[in-house]
Amino acid sequence: MVSAGWVATDGRRTQKRDHSENQIGEKDLDADDIYIRQLTPGDAALYRGIRLAGLKESPEVFGSTFQAEFTKPLAWFFNRLSSSDVFGAFLDAKILGVAGFATRPGEKEAHKGLLWGMYVRPEARGAGIARRLVEAVIAHARRRVELIQLSVVVGNEHARRLYAGLGFVEYGIEKNSLKFDGRYYDEILMAKELARASDHEPVVDAGLFAAGRPGREGIPSGRGAHDHLRAETVP
Ligand SMILES: CC(C)(COP(=O)(O)OP(=O)(O)OC[C@H]1O[C@@H](n2cnc3c(N)ncnc32)[C@H](O)[C@@H]1OP(=O)(O)O)[C@@H](O)C(=O)NCCC(=O)NCCS
Q1: Which of 45, 104, 115, 120 could form a disulfide with 97 if both were Cys (CB 3.0 to 4.6 A apart)?
Q2: Do the beta carbons of residue 36 and residue 132 sit within 8 Å?
Q3: pLDDT for 127-168, tens place per residue?
Q4: Selection from 143, 133, 141, 145 nearest residue 214 by Cα
C-alpha cells in the first residue's frame, strides 16, 4: 500500500491523500517499489507507449497532440530520447510516469529550463510519482540552469497544486495559449528559481532515483553525458 504521511525534503510531513485503492495489475502500488531514472534511446518503445497514452487521455493539457505523434515511427521517439532529458518512473519494468526537461534555445535564454511532458498513468496517481518526477527534474536542472519554467492549462488544478507544492510560483497567464478542437485554452506560467539558499531539494544529479520517501534517495547515475547545455524543440 502507499505509505501515509511521508516526510518531505524540507522535513515537513506531507498530508497524503487516501490512495489505498491504487493497484498496478494484481499488485498494490507501493511507493517504495518505484524508482526514477533518466530514459535512454533504448527506452523508445516504452516512452512511445506512455507518451501516446497521455496525449490520448489528456489532450487538452499538452502542447502536442495524439494525432501528431501517433504516426511517428519508433525512430522519432528514439531521436527524442537521444536529444532530450526525459525521466521515467518505474514499477519493475512498467513505466508509470514521465517528465521532460529542456533548456531554452539560444545563448540569451540558456539560463532557463523548461519542464514539459508531465504525465502519470491514471492507475498510478496519488502515490507521489509526479512529485518524485518533478523533484528529479529539479535536481537535474540545478547543474544546468538558473530557473525552471512551465505552463499549466487553466483548470488543471491537480498539476497546479503539484507545482506550487514544489516551489513553483505563478508569474503570468498566456491567454489563448493553446487551440485545440476549435477551443482556446489559457495557460498559467509558473517558474521556480534554483539558486536561492532557501530551496529544499537536495543538490544531486537525478540520473537515477531509487523510489520511496522524498528527499532521501538521490543517487547520482554516473552517466555524466548531459553536462552540456542543450536546446531542443519542446513538444
Ligand atoms: C497531474 C498529475 C501529473 C499528478 O500525478 P500524481 O502522481 O497523481 O501526483 P502526486 O501523487 O505526486 O501528487 C503530488 C501533488 O500534486 C497535487 N495533486 C495531484 N493530484 C491531485 C488530486 N487528485 N487532488 C488534489 N491534489 C492533487 C497535490 O498537491 C499532491 O500533493 P499531496 O498528495 O501532498 O496533496 C497526473 O494527475 C496527470 O498525469 N494528469 C494528466 C496529465 C497532466 O495534467 N499533466 C500535467 C501537465 S502541466
Answers
A1: 120
A2: yes
A3: 999 999 999 999 999 999 999 999 999 999 999 999 999 999
A4: 133
Note the pTM of the prediction, 2 decimals: 0.80
Q: What strands lie across the sheet with 208-209, from one edge to the other?
A: 169-180, 183-193, 147-153, 112-120, 94-103, 85-91, 34-38, 208-209, 218-219
How is residue 187 written as a grid cell? 495557460
Instruction: Please provide residue 126's backbone torsions phi and psi, each rounded to the nearest 5 degrees.
Output: 85, 0
- The answer to whether the CB of 155 is under 6 A from ligand 1 is no
In a domain, 20, yes or no: no
DSSP-derived 3-state class of residue 147: strand
Residue 139 lies inside a defined structural domain of this protein = yes
Print the domain residue range for 199: 27-214
Contact 100, 115 (CB under 8 A): yes
Query: What span, in angstroms and rounded, lies between the C-alpha atoms of 155 and 67?
Result: 23
- The residues, ordered by sequence, that sit 6+ positions from 64 with a Cβ below 8 Å of its Cβ are 55, 235
Ligand 1 in reach of 128 Cβ (< 6 A): yes
Give me the residue label for grid cell 523548461: 114
Is position 14 within any domain? Answer: no
Q: Is 13 in the pocket of ligand 1 (CB under 6 A)?
A: no
